[in-house]
Amino acid sequence: MKDNNKLAYQIINTESELRELATALEKEKTVAVDLEADSMYHFKEKVCLLQIAAKQANIIIDPLQINDLSPLKPIFFRHDIRKIFHGADYDVRSLYRDFNIEINNLFDTQIACRFLGIPETGLEAVLQKQFHISLDKKYQKKDWSQRPLPEDMMDYAAKDAVYLVPLAKLLEKRLEKKGRLSWVYEECHDLSKVRCASSDDDPLYLRFKGAGRLRPRNLAVLESLLQFRKQIAEKKDKPLFKIFGNNSLMRIATAKPVTLQHLERIKALSRKQTAMYGDIIVARVRKALKIPAKDLPVYPRKKGPVLSPKVPERVKAIKRWRDARAKKLDIDPALICNKALISVIAVQNPRNTEEIESIEEMKNWQQEAFGRDIVTVLRKVR
């Protein structure tokens, strides 16, 4: 069923309206939340719309018109009001970053879907499967910072949160039946505490995929290019990828072109990019190549401990057990035990449930549900 019907909703764009809404929401037991941002269009992303659906209300809040969203903070902070999201990681980080909003009693319907073994967990796919409702996602990647927003985009936004309350109820019943509801509750609690990384003083290459493979000289070139890209992006108020793609920067850092002709030969940039920035890029490469060897950046690497030769055997044994158990439970094996956790367990080699409980990387639900099994598996590795 295509959801072409317009939903009634209220737009909140003044502080007085927001305070009235906050007072009304104090009486709710559950609210569903979604947001729209502009990360595809601006250097510094921001929340552009906040959608809240409750029992008797479907609300769109415009944070670009309201400077202070603090009246909502108590609602999100309260432990006795459930906040339902779908794929909350980005939303939790964004709400805290932009408005210092902390969230308690969060329930993520996407996490719930994963723990039920539902293969496609995007909201569109889930609503189609569970309620036979088809959402039109054509506005998902539009510029939500534009004002005024077209009516069609507002109608689209109004539908994203409104189905989350009935969806959560349905998924909770199924999770409880399978004995996995407490697992999801713990995962959601941990998710509610995630925050955006604040590492403005760190070299940019530390957040660049593949930088760890580069030699110090190439790393110096890459850092210079990353700083240059950031400067342009900030000046033009565009996201980084719309200035230069990561692949382009990696090709330049690897080839280290010191002439415009060399830069053109490696075809890392378009003709337009080369015409606009080619001379500056070549100059930056040359400057990086003159940095004394002792001053070159070195990618930080943690020196691992000396491991027992039995560790690889333990890893294989845990993986075999995990995959078999995941198949039986019909869920993603990584939910039971991801690669990083398997390595930690294999190194620590817990011999009883008390030692399992001392592994900080394990969640409580993992220890309770699978701790004894893991100990049994490890005891068989001699």
Automatic annotation (TrEMBL):
Q: Which GO terms describe its molecular function?
A: 3'-5' exonuclease activity; nucleic acid binding; nucleotide binding
Cite the entry's keywords alphabetically. Exonuclease, Hydrolase, Nuclease
* Cross-referenced InterPro entries: 3'-5'_exonuclease_dom, HRDC-like_sf, HRDC_dom, HRDC_dom_sf, RNase_D-like, RNaseH-like_sf, RNaseH_sf
Please name the taxonomic classification of the source: Bacteria, Pseudomonadati, Thermodesulfobacteriota, Desulfobacteria, Desulfobacterales
Indicate the segments forming the HRDC domain, all copies. Answer: 215-295, 308-382
- Protein name in UniProt: Exonuclease domain-containing protein, HRDC domain-containing
Q: Which GO terms describe its biological process?
A: nucleobase-containing compound metabolic process
One short Pfam name that applies is HRDC
